Amino acid sequence: MSDLELHYPRPDIAVLTLNRPAKLNALSYELVCDLHTTLDQIRANNDCRVVVLTGAGRGFCSGLDLTDPNPNKASEGIDFPRSGMRWQELIAELTAKLQRLRQPVIAAVNGVAYGGGLGIAAACDIRVAAESARFCTQFIKLGLGGCDIGVSYTLPRIVGAGPAFDLILTARTIDAQEALRIGLVSRISADGTVVDDALQIAETLCSYGKFGVESTKQVLWANLEAPSLEAALQVENRSQILASTSGEMREASEAFRRRRRS
């Protein structure tokens, strides 16, 4: 049985499932490598337009599997800082890869999202949580710094600096209702339905123009770093002009006119 499952309920939607339910889908070396490979495959798939990311069983992802053999243990000693950094970078690069993915990624958080699991969810574009979902940064509880796998970047931008500092420094666990209140997730689903609800969102996105959806994701992430309104407008303007040349705008306008006439 694979630690990562990929299936397409329809050609333009990919469902990516972390599949280590006995470990609450904790991140092993094999799972991290499989995620990199599969995300690269999805990026190259021009038919795929949206990705739903979830976990098997009771958890979304409980973070790094501390019982998994560390591929760098054999290098501990003089070489360990160098080899350890490569392992650290391999895990952390997942968040950047999710952000760079052309397709929007919807996290269907079906259970605990702790440590790296929260980091991965925060790197997604939309987050939907089951009622039983729980969130915790966790890193600082393990004797590490509280900032890992991108949370010092993503969380302040999602929930604001104050709540992010609280969650990262205290590593307290919050439930789905608090996650909704602070904006960490945008919707709550009944247990057992979170993937179905994420798929409905995916279907909505697939009803819009291909270039329009991809460029919207790119512009949103780019303009988080915009130094001014003027700079943000320049990025938006160029994206809109490019979108207007794709033919999808003409198709959408004609469909709108047909609905008006009917």
UniProtKB/TrEMBL annotation:
InterPro entries documented for this protein: ClpP/crotonase-like_dom_sf, Enoyl-CoA_hydra/iso, Enoyl-CoA_hydra_C
GO molecular function: catalytic activity
Entry similarity comment: Belongs to the enoyl-CoA hydratase/isomerase family.
Protein name (record): Enoyl-CoA hydratase
Originating organism: Mycolicibacterium flavescens (Mycobacterium flavescens)
